[in-house]
Protein: Large ribosomal subunit protein uL6
Amino acid sequence: MSRIGNKPVAIPSGVKVSIADRNIDVEGPKGKLSFKHRPEVKVAVDSDTNQVIISRDGDDRPSREFHGLTRAIIANMIVGVKDGYEKKLEIVGVGYLASISGDTLQLRVGYANELHRKIPTDLTVTCPDQTHVVIQGCDKQSVGQFAAEIRSLRKPEPYKGKGIRYQGEQVKIKPGKSATK
Structure:
């Protein structure tokens, strides 16, 4: 029994959910998202209680798996179009910096060349200063994916902690070879 899948998703004011065939469209002040759910799951909008109700056909393993997954994706879509998602990255290191030029994020993170990454059209990327990058958008998956791609360009190294990390991320610093003496 899926405990998360049985819980209905409340639709806040200002958000419109429409279902046509297997396509779910969610529209709100931050944007519009759509998702095509699996045939093992049924999705309905209850206009009386203003909730999205997710149910499944069978009790086999894939049906149970997609039941909770579909509910979580719809809940994330509703939060995304209402409030949006945000990831903050910080760049640590002497001479390491980030800047935005048009639709390109430019990073200097200790390599011989500057790294350039094209910013996806559905995301808003800002640099409040040279050592911080803020990624905002209504799609949780694309915000997290772009943040992970930027972080993977120069992960924090364990000896000095230099690199790109999520804001608030704790990097365990290893002692150097002189610590053994």
Notes: The chain has a mean pLDDT of 92. The chain has two domains: 7-81, 83-164. Residues 83-164 form a domain with the Outer Surface Protein A; domain 3 fold (CATH 3.90.930.12).
